[in-house]
Design brief:
The complex is a heterotrimer of chains A (362), B (389) and C (246).
Chain A: H1 2-17, H2 19-39, E1 47-52, H3 58-69, E2 73-79, H4 85-91, E3 96-100, E4 109-115, H5 119-141, E5 149-157, H6 164-195, H7 197-203, H8 208-236, H9 246-270, H10 274-292, H11 304-309, H12 314-328, H13 332-361
Parallel strand pairs in A: 1-2, 1-3
Antiparallel strand pairs in A: 3-4
Helix pairs in contact in A: 1-8, 2-6, 2-8, 6-8, 6-9, 6-10, 6-12, 8-9, 9-10, 9-12, 9-13, 12-13
Chain B: H1 2-17, H2 19-39, E1 47-53, H3 58-69, E2 73-78, H4 82-90, E3 96-100, H5 104-111, E4 113-121, H6 125-155, E5 179-185, H7 193-223, H8 225-230, H9 236-266, H10 274-298, H11 302-318, H12 331-338, H13 341-353, H14 363-383
Parallel strand pairs in B: 1-2, 1-3
Antiparallel strand pairs in B: 3-4
Helix pairs in contact in B: 1-9, 2-7, 2-9, 7-9, 7-10, 7-11, 7-13, 9-10, 10-11, 10-13, 10-14, 13-14
Chain C: E1 6-15, E2 18-28, E3 33-38, H1 44-51, E4 59-64, E5 67-68, H2 73-79, E6 80-83, H3 95-105, H4 110-124, H5 139-151, E7 157-161, H6 169-184, E8 188-193, H7 196-199, E9 204-209, E10 212-217, H8 219-225, H9 231-239, H10 241-245
Parallel strand pairs in C: 3-8, 3-9, 6-7, 7-8
Antiparallel strand pairs in C: 1-2, 1-4, 4-5, 9-10
Helix pairs in contact in C: 3-4
Chain lengths: 362, 389, 246
């Protein structure tokens, strides 16, 4: 154990001496969470609207002002016919168009044309536009011509205001932590391999598993510092709820960091150069974590086979856990399966990493 | 020029010999494209729903039926207890609860309005928002239907038996009512892959270009071979070109393969000119690689280069407009997104592939990319000095 | 423009507060084998880097092959060969590929490259490993290769930074034979070493101590001047004056 302790101390010295990298490792995740937390929104705004109004009359002008009054739509052009319309869409100068028929107020029709290239925002824009028109229609129908209205009151449980932040921040945290942690350990190990100092270590009394643990443990502290800083940002800057136990969240985060560090070690153990190790960590983790973890795209929307695949993405489990604790306030009683899975994954990865070393030796 | 030929030969020899790198460069992006494109969708399959119907009238049952018939809501459970319903929601057994209060039908007939309660699990916000929209539109259609029925029979004798000027679907177009038609252009099938595949492809290719590009020169610096090159008569331009061109070629190949895969596997539309796409790609890749090279001249170690390119790729990734619309971002973030060449190239890809745009339509992003490329490469060349000051 | 192959006057290089090279002056004639000696850290490599155009001087003047080190570095680079202290050829290319690459960079024609590569490999006894990756070669062979690449394009001046570090005696002799050959052919050889016995092989030597040139002349001149029996002794006196006084 003395050898292991000495090794860990050496690793810590390495880290502390490289001031520049240390700063990057501490500040980068925080900076990213803050940046993207503020920047990413899912609510649709700034919709650029083209009005095609062959015969403007008070009714159509009134409708037009309704749209601008919402603050979400911006009328960018008024055309007399649809000839120039395709050009607007192709140039990306407009998102939607309203084609009005004459006699709007008397059973006339409106065609809402939406650029549906992005089906998600497309259907949202369509829904918004429809709602504005229906609202207008309801107003001009006046009292007494009310008609039948079923009024849905929708409650969004666990995220009442559908705050984008509440959705993104747990996912962002997972993404940033996993890539940074994996990169850290991958770089550390592959650099020793490349420089040849690993050979010296392998010849020493240190066993392979001890070397791996020695590579992971110092970065745990760094990783934990990252966790604290991003969670603090989530709470203080973004007002993300912390319904459940903060202690549990911290412990689970620590677990997740270990998983990511282990992944980095595995990648480095399997590659021969620093360059491939780093690229492997970056490319292997960034996009799959973003897309398959459920951070942006709901897993329930994916084809069945893909839903199975998402199970091997550690971030998926961590997001379930962190959303559960932060938004729903549940505890280990509910989350023990997910936690167990993360523990299992970590163990598997570490064992595989140790195995790679043994193979190399023999 | 001859020198460049020799340098390029060396680069290609090195790349060819690095098996692991080749895998990362070619196999991995294609594989990721295949897997991830299928995942990138917001399309909600039917949401499991818990119905608490306290009214149990024909109207309330009609509403529930409509919701199920839409294919968006699947009634898994029903009971009289909101408590049970909420527990099921918490345990993630259902995604939505529909609660119809006791006097629903009566209120509708008497006053013309009645509330119902919908509760969604918004843990996973995107889905919840979509569900709410679906529900709202189903409900409003149902309201209109009811109006037709109820007013015909009870409320408005004027309209009894009269379908009205536009009525072909039983919905009377009374004075003040507007008929709404909707049309989604470029994507009738509301397919997500058409939208995602080009975007993901661009992200993948860019990641490769910047990550490799950024480590390229630093690596030679780190292992010492750079010094030997600096002592020779090669020019900065020749050196940078030799570092840029091989990966430019590989990225173009990746792009071509990706488009092929997209076409064959995902049936993405290619409505515009492929020549235009590759032309734009050629310019774009020069800019992307140029940024990588610039990082290379700034970083002292491969590790630093990697972290810088990671930070950059995160910005490219999340501010690309693929996952969240750029128009929704706060103004300062939109400015930041404008600085990302990825964003512009994705605009071009989508415009040309999905909307069939021509070169005049994309002239602005194209111009931005060209300027970007020229500036970035000029800076990289200038920064690279064979002599340390 | 002077006729000397390498000329320096009060050449200085400072890094912040630290003066690595302190106003050195020297003049090396064409075809001379000049030994640039000194202990580790004395400033030899920094001086060479300035002379080869890799590092800009802080002050002073210097020229190599008649070209100024401030304003004409590219011309210098066309006229010199360089072998660095740390091996700096491509480990993931073969022996032949490395030679061909640098041949091409220095503008040799395809025919010249072919011929010279053949001759070179034969001379160095590297024929059998010609198509092996450099990574797998023993250190001594790597050094031979780097040496060969430095000379292959027949430059006017060749700078060798510790070329014989870590090689076996036989290889060391081979190196020196090739150095003499090159010098006989008119190539100026500027060589650094901390092996004092190699100093005896040079036409003239200079000894750097703490950034300054402490002594310069032929080996015999220096031995006389310092009443020493070997260059080792000369060096010892210069490097540890207090100790030698005893």
């Amino acid at each position: 154990m003395n050898a292991l302790r000495g090794f860990i101390v050496k690793e810590i010295h390495h880290i502390l001496r490289d001031r520049q990298t240390l700063m990057i490792l501490l500040l980068l995740p925080l900076a990213q969470v803050i940046l993207f937390g503020y920047a990413l929104r899912t609510d649709v705004r700034g919709i650029r609207l083209v009005m095609v109004d062959p015969a403007p009359d008070p009714a159509s002008l009134e409708l037009r002002s309704r749209f601008t009054a919402t603050g979400i739509f911006e009328v960018v052009a008024a055309l007399p016919n649809t000839d120039a319309l395709p050009g607007y869409f192709q140039r990306g100068a407009a998102d939607q168009a309203l084609v009005l028929e004459p006699d709007l107020g008397d059973g006339g029709s409106v065609m809402i044309i939406t650029d549906a290239t992005d089906p998600n925002t497309g259907s949202t824009m369509q829904a918004y536009a429809t709602a504005v028109i229906r609202g207008y229609e309801h107003e001009i129908a006046g009292p007494g011509g009310g008609g039948i209205r079923i009024i849905p009151h929708a409650r969004m449980r666990f995220n009442p205001t559908l705050e984008s932040v509440n959705l993104f921040v747990p996912g962002l945290i997972a993404l940033v932590l996993t890539v940074v942690s994996a990169l850290m350990s991958a770089i550390s190990l592959s650099r020793e391999k490349e420089r040849g100092t690993l050979e010296v270590l392998l010849v020493s009394p240190l066993r392979p598993w001890q070397i791996i643990v020695g590579k992971v443990v110092p970065y745990l502290v760094l990783g934990f510092a990252n966790v604290l800083s991003v969670l603090a940002a989530a709470w203080l800057l973004f007002g993300v709820p912390f319904e459940g136990s903060v202690l549990l969240l911290l412990l689970e985060s620590l677990l997740f960091i270990v998983t990511s560090l282990a992944l980095g070690v595995l990648i480095a153990a399997r590659t021969s150069s620093q360059r491939t190790a780093m690229m492997g960590a970056l490319m292997g983790l960034m996009l799959p974590t973003t897309i398959l973890s459920g951070m942006i795209f709901p897993i329930a929307s994916m084809p069945a086979w893909l839903q199975l695949v998402t199970n091997i993405v550690p971030a998926k489990w961590f997001i379930l856990i962190s959303r559960g604790i932060m938004l729903k306030g549940v505890g280990l009683a509910h989350l023990w399966p997910e936690t167990l899975i993360l523990v299992g994954m970590t163990t598997l990865v570490l064992v595989a990493a140790v195995r790679s070393f043994d193979i190399r030796l023999s | 020029m001859r020198t460049l030929r020799f340098l390029l030969r060396k680069e290609f020899l090195q790349i060819r010999r690095d098996r692991a790198m080749l895998r990362l460069l070619i196999a991995m992006p294609i594989m990721q494209l295949l897997v991830l494109s299928s995942a990138a969708t917001f399309q909600i399959r039917s949401a499991s729903t818990y119905v608490v119907d306290d009214d149990r009238s024909s109207t309330s049952r009609g509403l529930v039926q409509r919701m199920e018939a839409s294919g968006r809501f699947e009634v898994e459970r029903a009971s009289g207890s909101m408590k049970l319903a909420n527990e099921a929601l918490l345990a993630r057994e259902v995604t939505a609860i529909v609660h119809i209060p006791a006097d629903f039908e009566r209120d509708l007939v008497r006053t013309g309005t009645a509330p119902i309660q919908l509760i969604f699990n918004a843990e996973d916000g995107a889905a919840a928002g979509m569900l709410r929209s679906y529900a709202a539109s189903i409900i409003s259609d149902y309201s209109a239907e009811l109006e037709g029925e109820l007013t015909r029979t009870t409320l408005d004798p004027r309209v009894r038996g009269d379908d009205g000027p536009s009525g072909d679907d039983g919905v009377s177009a009374r004075s003040g009512q507007i008929r709404i038609q909707t049309s989604g252009w470029y994507n009738e099938g509301l397919s997500y892959t058409d939208f995602m595949v080009p975007g993901i492809l661009v992200l993948l290719v860019t990641m490769i270009a910047t990550a490799i590009g950024s480590m390229n020169i630093v690596r030679e610096k780190e292992i010492g071979t750079l010094e030997q090159l600096n002592v020779t008569p090669i020019t900065r331009g020749q050196f940078i070109a030799s570092k840029l061109l091989p990966f430019w070629a590989i990225a173009m190949v990746d792009l071509g393969l990706g488009l092929l895969v997209g076409r064959l596997v995902f049936d993405i539309p290619i409505r515009g000119s492929l020549l235009l796409i590759f032309g734009a790609a050629a310019i774009y890749l020069l800019a992307a690689l140029g940024i990588g090279l610039w990082i290379s001249t700034v970083a002292q170690t491969q590790q630093q280069a990697m972290f810088l390119s990671f930070a950059l790729n995160m910005v490219y990734l999340l501010m690309s407009g693929i996952f969240t619309p750029i128009q929704s971002m706060p103004d300062w973030a939109q400015w930041l997104a404008e600085l990302s060449p990825v964003k512009h190239f994705i605009v071009i890809m989508r415009a040309v592939l999905v909307k069939g745009a021509g070169v005049m339509d994309i002239k602005i992003p194209l111009l931005v990319l060209t300027v970007y490329g020229v500036v970035v490469l000029a800076v990289a060349v200038k920064r690279y000095s064979k002599t340390t000051a | 423009m002077t006729a000397a192959a390498v000329e320096a006057r009060d050449l200085t290089r400072r890094f912040g507060n630290f003066t690595a090279v302190d106003a050195i002056s020297l003049s090396v004639a064409r075809g001379e084998v000049f030994g640039f000696l000194g202990a580790n850290g004395a400033g030899k490599t920094t001086a060479i880097r300035m002379l080869t155009g890799l590092l800009a001087p802080t002050s002073g003047e210097a020229s190599v092959a008649g070209f100024d080190v401030y304003t004409e570095t590219e011309s210098i680079k066309c006229s010199i060969g360089y072998m660095s202290q740390k091996f700096s050829l491509y480990e993931d290319l073969t022996v032949r590929e490395n030679v061909r690459l640098y041949g091409g960079i220095y503008g040799l024609s395809d025919a010249e490259i072919r011929e010279r590569t053949q001759a070179l490999l034969a001379r160095l006894g590297l024929e059998r490993s010609a198509d092996d990756l450099v990574r797998g070669l023993p250190l001594g062979w790597k050094q031979k290769l780097a040496f060969a690449v430095a000379l292959n394009h027949k430059p006017g001046v060749v700078f060798l930074d510790e070329p014989t570090g870590g090689v076996d005696p036989i290889t060391r002799r081979q190196f020196w034979e090739m150095i003499y050959e090159a010098a006989a052919g008119g190539t100026t050889v500027f060589i650094t070493t901390h092996y004092m016995d190699e100093a005896e092989y040079c036409d003239r030597v200079s000894i750097m101590v703490a950034g300054k040139i402490a002594a310069m002349g032929t080996p015999d001149e220096l031995k006389d001047e310092f009443a020493a029996r070997s260059m080792d002794d000369v060096f010892f006196q210069l490097a540890r004056p207090e100790e030698s006084a005893r």
